[in-house]
Amino acid sequence: MAEGGAGGNQPPREHPQNLQGLLQMAITAGNAEPSQLEPMSDERRQWLQEAMAQAFRGQLEEVEQMKECLRVLEAVSPGGEGGETSEPAEGDPSRQASALELLAELCENLDNAADFCKLDGMRLLAHRYLEHPVAELRWRAAHLVGTCAQNVPKVQEQALALGCMRKLLRLLDHDGADVVRVKALFAISCLVRAQEGGLQQFLRLDGFSVLMRAMQSPVEKLKVKSAFLLQNLLLDHPEHKETLCSMGMVQQLVALIRSEHSPFHEHVLGALCSLVTDFPQGVRECREPQLALEELLRERCQLLQRQEEFQEELEFCERLQRVCFQTPPEESSMDR
């Protein structure tokens, strides 16, 4: 191979460090001109065989690490065999927390996430750890569900089939630990974005109401992430705007904007913008005199003028003014 100017009898200066690198090297070789191809030397063939073996061994080692983590997590106290009623073994939860932490790191790799599910790991999270009495194990389990589910439809489908959505919404709505609620929201977002089955479960379980209550939480991180998810769901699924309006979402968003000014308001205003975009009913509700939204927007624009860190929030305010109060509702639309 002539890559990098190396001669036919010498390995390249830099060897690929993993399976992905070896595959890239193979693609590069496959694209080479016939005149560039040279017979493979014995030395290079041996190096390539060893490199391939090492890469596959690394993948197998990660699967073995996941199996060992699952052995730690699967331990049950006497009489606690099987099913949703299994009880975690008495003992030091720090070992279980370490296992969940390592699994989350390993499952950043999509292949490992799929293997984790094949090893029945998702079932263990759904049936035991999302409802574990130890808060650290609950939040680590929720984080692992989200990590595995990101952009992997088969994993999303398995998590949904195991009832994760219901349990995650319950954690978001009722858990006493803020970090558990934040991680539950992360996992929910990974199950509803670009996943129609997840969105349908979310709707069936009154997920928008849970999201609205999370936006009213005193926890800033939870408020921001909830509003951001609502904004994106409205952009991706405008067909649900009528449902949200019937729930009083316009009035609740305006009430949040009236609270003491915070960076969180940018995302609330963004969600309200998404709600009224090409939706006359939303515009009409924003014009209700008792909301006094026009005056609120005018005051907010004055407050934000010449404050560079709030320019996006200012733009949302100006767009709402333009759409809701300068155009008839039937004609209103908004640039995305």
Automatic annotation (TrEMBL):
<dbReference type="InterPro" id="IPR011989">
    <property type="entry name" value="ARM-like"/>
</dbReference>
<keyword id="KW-0677">Repeat</keyword>
<keyword id="KW-0597">Phosphoprotein</keyword>
<dbReference type="InterPro" id="IPR013918">
    <property type="entry name" value="Nucleotide_exch_fac_Fes1"/>
</dbReference>
<dbReference type="InterPro" id="IPR016024">
    <property type="entry name" value="ARM-type_fold"/>
</dbReference>
<feature type="region of interest" description="Disordered">
    <location>
        <begin position="1"/>
        <end position="43"/>
    </location>
</feature>
<dbReference type="GO" id="GO:0000774">
    <property type="term" value="F:adenyl-nucleotide exchange factor activity"/>
</dbReference>
<protein>
    <recommendedName>
        <fullName>Hsp70-binding protein 1</fullName>
    </recommendedName>
</protein>
<dbReference type="InterPro" id="IPR050693">
    <property type="entry name" value="Hsp70_NEF-Inhibitors"/>
</dbReference>
<dbReference type="GO" id="GO:0005783">
    <property type="term" value="C:endoplasmic reticulum"/>
</dbReference>
<feature type="domain" description="Nucleotide exchange factor Fes1">
    <location>
        <begin position="19"/>
        <end position="115"/>
    </location>
</feature>
<feature type="region of interest" description="Disordered">
    <location>
        <begin position="76"/>
        <end position="95"/>
    </location>
</feature>
<comment type="subunit">
    <text>Interacts with the ATP-binding domain of HSPA1A. Detected in a ternary complex containing STUB1, HSPA1A and HSPBP1. Interacts with PGLYRP1; this interaction blocks the cytotoxic activity of the PGLYRP1-HSPA1A complex.</text>
</comment>
<dbReference type="Pfam" id="PF08609">
    <property type="entry name" value="Fes1"/>
</dbReference>
